[in-house]
Design a protein that fits this description.
By secondary structure, this protein is an alpha+beta fold. Helix content is 34%, strand content 27%. It has a single domain (2-125), classed as YdfO-like fold (2-Layer Sandwich).
Length: 131
């Protein structure tokens, strides 16, 4: 059951039909603690609370990964996603253009770590809920 939900959420996300908070909620509900997106391998691996992992291929082409890491470009893509002015297809294109080769979203830890091709990284804490 959880694998089916993970596939449905991944497909809807890559089609730009869901926001990041909606995806996080859905994944947490089926026991996903974190997931790793590898743009070079075009794969997303979900890590569940029961210790298992479930990898699925990306249906979205991430495009070329820039050789240099651009934190400002990445942060602009993140802020756009947080404001829901950028959905996942555009977020992926903007991230790879900013030199992101992959990222690990720690849902239970409420942070995402983005990686560049040379080991550069940017850590983004989940936004705090508005009062």
């Amino acid at each position: 059951m959880s694998r089916q939900v993970i596939h449905e959420l991944a497909t809807a996300t890559q089609q730009g039909k869901m926001t990041f908070p909606q995806v996080v909620k859905g994944l947490l509900e089926v026991g996903v603690e974190s997931y790793l997106v590898d743009f070079a391998a075009k794969q997303k691996t979900h890590y569940l609370a029961d210790g298992t992992a479930h990898a699925i291929p990306m249906i979205l082409d991430p495009g070329p990964i820039a050789p240099e890491f651009n934190s400002a470009g990445l942060v602009a893509a993140i802020r756009g996603a947080q404001a829901d002015t950028v959905r996942y297809p555009e977020f992926v294109q903007r991230s790879t253009a900013a030199g992101v080769i992959g990222y690990w979203a720690f849902l239970t830890g409420k942070k995402v770590i983005y990686f560049g091709r040379k080991g550069e990284q940017h850590i983004e804490e989940f936004p705090r809920p508005k009062a």
